[in-house]
Amino acid sequence: MKLCFCLITLSLICLASADSSQETGFLEITGNPENVEDFVFKGKEFKLKGKRLQITSGNQASNSQFPYVAELAINTITGGYKCTASLIGASWLLTARHCIVGMPQITSILASFGSADNQAQRTQIYVNSATWMNAADGINHPDIALFHLSQPAPTTATIKPVRLPKLAQENFAYDNYDFTAIGWGQISLGVFSRYLQYTNFRTLAPTSCFLGQYYMCSQPPTGISQLLGGDSGGPGVIVEADGIETQIGVNVAYVTAGTSIWQKSTRVSNFLQFIKTQTGISY
């Protein structure tokens, strides 16, 4: 029996192909209101009829547990959608390429930090530009992007950058690693969580699952856990021997074949030079 493979990105709008005439792409965000207080998210609640897939094995984060995770509210000329990002430096966010490329014209982006409850008071800063990578073949674009904040994020107990892999670990595969994926996405189809969520996965070797040279394939070690719309761009982190969390992945999609589901994450270690060139950040 032939299996049908389906790749589903984790943001809410389908993607169009992107221009690959340059090594990197750049977009300046020009529609941000003058004051953050004037920002109005124009996204609509995402609803699907039929059975809703509840994320089991997910957990609610505490305020200081993942101080580097940002919720993104992105407005376009036709509506809006959500993504997740990680703070990697005072003025830089790491996220998924498909959160910015191939969408209707983007007018404004607001990043919110500092609380795992999106109804609590949070630090909110506009994104004023985005940079991403384009593939030479015009097809296999790496799903990774950098957002520049209009002002540096403060450093507090609940707002701190996450560490990236060391340059000496460039292209390290991270096969058979346990990691935590974090996101502001849906907790079931059509229902966004008020609270930041996280869940655990284990990366697979290419002999078990291969989704492309830039990506890690993973599944939950026990139970059923799945990332949904709005989780795109969120970080996948490991705890290293020194007890500090390091981001090794970026949430981008889930892939199905029959009844099997795999998570697809961009492998951050493949893009350390790109990140350093654009931001000056390296370890």
TrEMBL record:
Ranges for domain Peptidase S1: 55-280
Top-level division of the source organism's lineage: Eukaryota
Protein name, per record: Peptidase S1 domain-containing protein
InterPro entries: Peptidase_S1 (IPR050430), Peptidase_S1_PA (IPR009003), Peptidase_S1_PA_chymotrypsin (IPR043504), Peptidase_S1A (IPR001314), Trypsin_dom (IPR001254)
Family in the record: Belongs to the peptidase S1 family. CLIP subfamily.
Gene3D superfamilies (UniProt xref): Trypsin-like serine proteases
Molecular function terms, GO-annotated: serine-type endopeptidase activity
Organism for this UniProt entry: Chironomus riparius
Residues making up the signal peptide according to the UniProt record: 1-18
Gene Ontology terms describing biological process: proteolysis
Keywords: Disulfide bond, Hydrolase, Protease, Serine protease, Signal
